């Protein structure tokens, strides 16, 4: 039951109707292309770079779900934040959104294959348990969803 609850909650934030507002996919669909590359004053990242960052951390979890003990992402590196992410066309934006959706689908598929006891097991190659990791990917999505919507809101008010 916990596995199903995780999958349901992660999907709700991703493309459902979370209680707090728009989902990640719903938000991205409403952001004009012109806002994807802009870094507002006192902001480190653009919407495009944040979306790529979210994708990369989903792939981190996917690798752990696959049992890859050596895969890791060191904070504040190129693996954590891709360099020079620019979305120049609707096709490029759609490609990034598709990559995000594919990573989400693979993550959910792999989680659904796990037994409930897996949640209490140590994450391969890490010092924490899988329950902590799944909480983390969910919190990560919500955190960056807030950033994305805040940046878009700032840009729309200019």
Automatic annotation (TrEMBL):
InterPro entries: DinB-like, DinB/YfiT-like. This is Putative damage-inducible protein DinB. Residues 25-148 form the DinB-like domain.
């Amino acid at each position: 039951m916990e596995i199903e609850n995780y999958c349901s909650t992660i999907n709700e934030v991703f493309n459902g109707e979370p209680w707090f507002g728009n989902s990640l996919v719903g938000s991205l669909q409403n952001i004009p292309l012109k806002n994807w590359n802009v870094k507002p004053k006192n902001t480190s990242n653009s919407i495009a770079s944040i979306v790529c960052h979210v994708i990369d951390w989903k792939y981190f979890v996917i690798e752990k779900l696959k049992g890859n003990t050596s895969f890791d992402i060191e904070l504040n590196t190129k693996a954590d934040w891709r360099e020079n992410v620019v979305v120049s066309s609707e096709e490029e934006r759609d490609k990034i959104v598709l990559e995000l959706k594919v990573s989400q689908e693979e993550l959910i598929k792999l989680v659904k294959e796990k037994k409930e006891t897996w949640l209490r097991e140590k994450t391969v190659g890490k010092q924490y348990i899988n329950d902590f990791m799944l909480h983390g990917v969910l919190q990560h999505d919500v955190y960056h969803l807030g950033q994305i919507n805040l940046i878009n809101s700032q840009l729309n008010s200019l």
